[in-house]
Amino acid sequence: MLNEESMLRVLCVDDNRDTADSLAVLMQIAGFEAIACYDGPSALAAAATFHPDVCVLDLNMPGMNGDELGQRVREVDGGSNTTLVAFTGLPEEEARERTTAAGFDLHLTKPIDPERLANTVIDIVILRAPPSTRSSPRIPWPDPRSTA
User: Fold this and answer.
1) How many other C-beta atoms lie within 10 A of the C-beta of residue 16?
2) Is 26 exposed, middle or buried (0-12, 13-18, 19+ CB in 10 A)?
3) Can you tell me whether residue 87 is helix, strand or coil?
């Protein structure tokens, strides 16, 4: 588990309150700091102070949709490296077109296995980390001069 200073921050946004709250609880169970928002404007305000590492966004929300929200989160000071994950019930082809155009890193189709979502978020963040900050196991190599 990460310590508090390095805890991954996840912003979960869906106009369905149960879905947003469930996503946030799932991320908390996975060891992340997570908050839920239910619309684009409140999520944008939260992103400005919460500084999420990852945003899991519903694409189809009234008012400000997830496409616009994702782009605006990345415009917020320090948000350009925020990982954007679309969480949508849209057909695969339409979701791919929208998420690609909006610059999302990934899209997932509802419903999703909670463990898969948590592992996906972890994988994305690890892959986006600079090589010098990635942890990798040190495998001891035998000394070729040893006779053991």
Assistant:
1) 13
2) buried
3) strand
The helix (H) or strand (E) run that includes residue 120 is helix 114-128
Instruction: Find, among 111, 116, 135, 126, the residue nearest to 30 by Cα.
Output: 116
What is residue 98's DSSP assignment? H
Q: Which domains does the chain have, with CATH numbers?
A: 4-131 (3.40.50.2300)
Per the CB < 8 A criterion, the answer to whether 104 and 59 are in contact is: no
Torsion of CA 27, 98, 82, 33, to 10 degrees: -10
d(CA 4, CA 43): 22
Per the prediction, the chain carries an average pLDDT of 82
Percent of the chain's residues with pLDDT above 70: 79
Residue 138 is predicted with a pLDDT of 45
Contact at 8 Å (CB) between 62 and 94?
no
pTM (2 d.p.): 0.80
| SS3 assignment, position 38 | coil
Distance of CA 39 to the CA centre of its chain: 17
